[in-house]
Amino acid sequence: MALERQVEKLKHEGKNIVWYPQDKQAEALECPAFELLFGGAAGGGKTDFLLADYAAGIPEWGKAWRGIVFRRTYPELEEVILRARELYLPIGAVFKKQEKTFTFPNGAWLRMRSLDSDQEVHEYQGHQYTWIGFDELGNYATDFCWIYMSSRCRSAAGAPCFMRATANPGGTGHAWIKNRFIEGFEPGKIYTDAEGMTHCFIPSRLEDNRILTGMDPDYEKRLNRLPGHLRRAYREGDWDIVAGQYFDEWRRDKHVCKPFPLVQGSYYKFYAFDWGYNKPYALVKLAVSGDGQIFQYGELYGCLTGEINKGVRESSPDTARKAKQSADLEGVTDLIADPSCWNKQDGYPAVIDAFMTAGFRCIKANNDRVPGWTRLHELLKTEDEHHRPMLQVFDTCLHTIRTIPSLLPDPHRGEDVDSALEDHLADALRYGIMSRHSRFPQQQLRSQTGIRTPPKRWDTLRDNGF
Fold first, then answer.
1. pLDDT for 361-394, tens place per residue?
2. Domain CATH code at residue 82
3. Structural domain total, the chain
4. pLDDT over threshold 60, residue 189
């Protein structure tokens, strides 16, 4: 609102204001990260940000400021060009229709181009740009165009170089964009990758665009009429949506929580485990309260770094030693494991032998898949008296948070999860919630403490400063 008052003051002084940023747009314009993704919900002012971000470099860098904006096709680009004309022509730009390029009085220029396939990107070999923008990056099924064009982002004149993109959840590029910008990254925070390059995600929702909601108050109603997953994508900007997802109850803002102290005697802790060698192994750390509320407070996931659904090929004794190290610190003795862990193959010891040797009390899991998934559905949907789901996951469990929402139904058995997907942590969680430890928590607490009535719930402790 302070910015809007400044704008009104300038207008009162007779200054011509072509455009001014709203709060989220202003935050994105100030971001110095090399790669920036802006957006989420429909109507968040994404295209205006993209055009303004390029324009911010024009006054200082002049002819050294070289930009390009991509959309998949020229028809898609028409709306961007129309809006660019409205913003750029009043500040002296000339639009060359044949070349689809805006040129500015001090020599800066911005090209508008279509880029429909990975093959077409090679046409830009040898080009150099200081600023590269992709409008609706989610229309690209892979990250190849984005990665390749980042190698064209350079300046012999010393101008700063930026990659900028807008996107909504749910496009063909949903998975790679989520993995690159969203999953495990705090919005608005700048991160540095292994090569030393910085990246950031700044979300924008419809309510951040006060101009649009003021001029067209019925737009929100039209978004709310969309089918479930599309409404979550375009109205809520929810990156956990997948069309046809199996656990459509999952909401990050409801089912993911900050870690808090798990007071001994108020919770019974145990582990649940799904073995994997070529595929990832998965261990979930669970704590259940006396009234049956379950928290996943940790995970151990044997997946190759930077890969999806590829195991680390670690031996069972090594995995058991890792698990026991944390179990000793946390006072955990019980491991609920996939029944297949008891199988011996080709004369080799059973996987479970390594965990028994390490000192775990090992219990065969109930491996009835559909009843297990049904219980997981129920725990995600059911709330306690404080409107908190009966199952929540600490925000440190990054792989669980990544994989649960991406699971789809089995195409041949719709009531089951498609086991060809990355379902290992979901399997481990299923073993845990089907165990007696979670179904009869008071018995476990009594065996641990000798107290028949469990102590007060964690929320009472937390409300009093814990």
1. 999 999 999 999 999 999 999 998 889 999 999 9
2. 3.40.50.300
3. 2
4. yes
Cβ neighbours of residue 410 under 8 Å, at least 6 residues apart? Answer: 416, 417, 418, 419
Position 244 in a domain: no
Query: What is the CATH number for 348?
Result: 3.30.420.280
Say which residue, 349 or 205, is predicted with more confidence: 349
408 shares a domain with 270: yes
Domain that holds residue 218: 18-234
Q: What's CA 83's distance to the chain center, in Å?
A: 30
pTM: 0.68
